[in-house]
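User: Structure tokens for this complex, please. No commentary.
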Amino acid sequence: METLFFLIITLVAIVSAILVTTCKNPINSALALVMTFFCLATYYVMLDAPFMAAVQVMVYAGAIMVLIVFTIMLLNIRVDASKKHSHKVVLGSIIGFFTLVNTAFIVIKGHVASPNGPLTGEMIRQQGHTELIGREMFTNFLLPFEITSILLLVAIVGAVILAKKKI
Amino acid sequence: MENVNSYLIVSAILFSIGTIGVLTRKNAIVIFMCVELMLNAVNLTFVALSRHLGNLDGQIFVFFVMTVAAAEAAVGLALMIAFYNNKESIDVEDVNIMKW
Amino acid sequence: MFDNVWLIPLFPFIGFLINGLLGKKIKNETVIGGIGAFAVLCSFIVSCMTILNLLSLPGEERVANVKLFTWITSGHFNADIAFLIDPLSCVMIMIVTGVGFLIHLYSIGYMHGEEGFYRFFAYLNLFMFSMLLLVLGNNLLLMFVGWEGVGLCSYLLIGYYFHKKSAGDAGKKAFVMNRVGDFGFLLGVFTLFWYMGQNHNIWTIQFTELAANSHLLPTGGVVTVITLCFFVGATGKSAQIPLYTWLPDAMEGPTPVSALIHAATMVTAGVYMIGRMNYLFIRSPETLMVIAVVGACTALFAATIGTAQNDIKRVLAYSTVSQLGYMFLAMGSGAFAAGIFHLMTHAFFKACLFLGSGAVIHSMHHALHHAHSHDDAQDMRNMGGLRSKMPLTFLTFLLATIAISGIPGFSGFFSKDEILWQAFSNPHHGQLNYLLWGMGAVAAGLTAFYMFRLVFMTFFGECRITPKAKDHLHESPMVIVIPLIVLAALSVVGGYIGLPKVIGELFGGIPNYFEHYLEPVFRLSEEYMAQHAALGAEHHSATLEWGLMGLSVLIALFGIGVAFTMYVMNTELPKRFVATFPALHRAVYNKWYIDELYDYLFVNPCKALGRFLWKGFDVVVVDGAVNGVANVVMAFSGVFRFLQSGYIYNYAWSMAFGVVVILGYYVFK
Amino acid sequence: MSNHLLSLTTFLPILGVLLLLFIPKDSKGVLRGVALTVTVVTFLVSLPILTGFQTNADFQFTENVPWIAAGPFAMRYNVGIDGISLWLVILTTFIMPLAVLSTWTAVEEKVKEYMICLLLLETGMLGAFISLDLFLFYIFWEVMLIPMYFIIGIWGGKNKIYAAVKFFIYTMVGSLLMLVALIFLYFKGLEAGFTNFGLVQFFDLRLDPATQTWLFLAFALAFAIKVPMFPLHTWLPDAHTEAPTAGSVILAAIMLKMGTYGYVRFALPLFPDAAHRFTPLIATLAVIGIIYAALVAMVQEDVKKLVAYSSVAHLGFVMLGIFAFNTQGITGGMLQMLNHGVSTGALFLIVGFIYERRHTRLITDFGGLSKQMPIFATVFMIVTLSSIGLPGTNGFVGEFLVLVGSFESELRWWTVIASSGVILSAVYMLWMFQRVMFGELDNPKNQKLADLNAREIAIMVPLIALIFIMGVYPNPFIEKMDPAIQKLIARTKPVGQTAQQMPAMQGLPAGHPAMSGSAATSVEQAVPAVANPNEVK
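Assistant:
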């Protein structure tokens, strides 16, 4: 059952990903991307990471996608005017294919290390994923976490300055 | 729960599709979306391995990736608007000033 | 006793500073000229005191070094600002300040109303300063300072009318020619300094020390090199072959300048220098011969050119070159005193001639100006019959001309005859002596010819300018005439202080005062000659001397006679002569095309070489190599530059490609 | 206070830069005033160095503090001056105010940046002259390159970029080779047990001839480019022509001295044997430079280029004098450096004056200026005469000593040829002077030219005074530098001669063959007679 579910999700994810790259209209691409994001969120849930799934939906499917769609509408670009793809489709596909081959080869050939951390599904369900992440975040990763705030601040300022016509 | 390898394969496939998109599309926004797709593929790897190894670090990392992605989206889209204001286009083939 | 000697050059220098810095503000010509002349007068007075002091000493002690301060010391090289007082320098300062004063006086009248009057006097005073440094300097370097200083003043004064291109050219030519000479002079100083230091550990350039150690020097060999170098310097300054061409051109300057610098003083510096270092020159028979030959050749050569010139000043200029040749002939014959003697008498009569010609030009210029004529005021073909208009000028001019022509009883006769006799009888050149004498005698005849040609064309015959202009011709003011009279008087009587021995004996043993007076200076040479008497001094009889004297006088009279025939009796003769020998006349008139030859040989090749080196070597070879390297780098980067197309997707492509390859390498290795 | 006089002098311009940073860029008058004040104050501060300088061969006003401690070897802030660098330091501080004044009105754009560049340049040049640490010298050597690059490249003429890049790359090629040699010396120093880059100890490190040869070549090339010697001179005319007046003045008056100073201070005493070996080569190049540059200068159409080529000729004399290896030669070379600084600096100023008025430098555009500008004519004449080495002006003394010195040495025939440069210099300078100043004032544009104004006269007066002072009474200059030069000559005696002449020169730290490769301690024992405050124990 779970395997079937996994396969369906995988199918959806891959198809929508392909749609992202192939759709003529950026809006369609964007919608397909949202679909992919949701599939990924599903994966996260299946991987006992509900908090990540929630954040995935909120940040990606919510914030970022809204931003992208806004931009698309703001710039009012519907279709790629001349050619949808550049002429390098074949070459690009080859490179993509080799990327896939490489990674797949690593995944298949290499073997993943056996579990070594304290985290188990049981533990997550007992303590709650959010709490685990939160504890980790505000203890071991406090400094990087704070730094991200600066990063975001810089991004805000940068975005404002860049997008303004005249400063 | 599926074998971790399945997730990694899915991630690889998504990543490759994203790569192809980045390399073949001309619309900067679509390229941008493909980059997001690649990022997400990597995120999936992180989460899957984190779960498999029983270590939360990977998921924390995903959190940071998302932060960066958000910042990137803000700045990147601002760049596109700025570029559009200049050139009335967001076609990457019109961007050729990155040379000496 | 000679503590005040530094005042001699100082006065003109002060005059230079006052006129140079404040002259423009003073404006009053009398004041400016007064300052200039007064400064020189002061020097003259101090010079007189100095020479009186010197004469009060016994002959052996008549030498003094007066040191002011140390100038340059470096290692064993030492040069002081110090003055040397001895009979030679004293006679020179007397000539320089005396004649200089008269010419300053003259200039006040002559330069009246000229633009830049103050500038003229400032330069003139600066010249006096430099010239006095030259003759008073007690070492070679200080002499060189004066040497170059007078060259500079000559440059400035020749180019006084700087808006005329010819004046600028002439000044530059003079300076550069002098520089060629200075090059020789410097090499002489170097070689002498090095040789004495290296071999005898006497590192000095001071004249008295050099003289004291001159016995260490060998005969010939390195001394020949040294003296030849110095002689090159002398040819530059004293306008001898081959560096004489600047002097005629130097006539572009105002006439007083020609009189002072290019006749009386500066150009004689070469003669003075040889006299100053006679103990060196006497040690090199080869150099003496070169000097004598060059001197004789110059005397003859310049005299031939002088016969065909029409510009009054140019005739005098070639005459000066020719007379300087006589002086060098004397020096080359080892008759240093005779050379200096001629230097002195020449200063008198040539200054007088130049000033006289200046008066004529001045007058002509005014007359032509009033008549609105554009004829050349210096061209003798426009003159004639000035005798009645300018009697005083004529008289003085005639006296000086007689003196230069070597008519007995006038100063030129004594000095020139002494030179010819020495050239004939000296022990240095063997059979060559006869040739030297012959050249000198012919030159004397030519001198008489062209000088009287000048007199006849200018003062005799009919006036050839328009009658309107003729009315404006008049005698010059007193400030111009007085110097003429004084100089004319000097050129008449100046010779009596140096009577030749035979004449002196005739009149009851009157000694040759001048030679006697200079004896301490040339003692070393005399002693050297005495030691090397084996060189074979033939003894010549007094009868021979009388005979030669008579012969040279006859030649001179013949020259005068020819001039009289051609320019007074039958004025058609010159034209017929020109018609008969057109090529000869053209060659002589064009100064034997020496200027053109120099242009062809030196000036143009130098320019062409410079241009080639610049455009050919600098730009093509060196810069070509430099830019070539840069271009090669550019070409390579041009290839790699295609990778950097500016398209982001290209960058993305290469990145993806790289990732795949590298990843592939690690995966499949 | 007096202990830090050198540092104070060197870094005062940097303080000035800080001050300038706080001045708004539109108040140009204030900017210029501050820059001028700073340079004048620097000059005043440098005067006590002159008065307090003891006439002996030691390094004085030394400061020596640790700077960068890198492993076993330390770079130290080690400065001090002797008779050789003394005058160059003074020359630098003296020229700078004049340079600032010279472009008072000519530079109107980016005044702030311009003044900052000038001040930085001053620090760089002073630092290079006072450094006694090889590494420190290298730093300053490079520091002065950059402001100059900007001065040419931003405030230059039409072809400024080409000139600036050419200048930069030429110099850079040389200095990189020097850097390599420095690094090599570092290892040699390590072997000898040195602990820092202090220059003086390296003097006693007699390297074997082969090593010396290579190191000498590297140093010599760097300095030869800077001098510049034929055939590495082609950057100079371009840089000079394109640079603004102040740039040309500084370049000619001070920066070119860096090359010759480098020979005297580093290349000769560090590698004496190699220096002797290459003397014929360098003398030949110097003599070729003298004649060649004179010939090329003769046919130039651009006044500034002509002056630039005359620089090459003058510095040929300097090089000839230095490689005579005797007192007169080196003294003459040093004097000639100062002379060249004064007279060529003045010439560039003069060219700047007319350029500012007419915006052309072509000789054919001028003619007859004497009539219109008498003061200018006088000044120009004096400087021209100084440049052609007329006795009584400074140019003569240096040139004469150089020629006397080299005539005494083995370079006799070279000297003979070089002397003929005296003729050529008169030819090209006077010809140029004649074409610019004499003749008819026929170009209508020249007929309204104004004579020099008060500012310009104020610039020229000190220079002209110096021209005469150094010409008439050069002894004070010579006296101060003499002991240092004697010491240098003793140091640069070839090995064979040194051994023989050792007894005659007791007390001088001449290198001894036995010393090479020995430990630092033994080196120090060998030189007890010289109380050298600079020696780092």
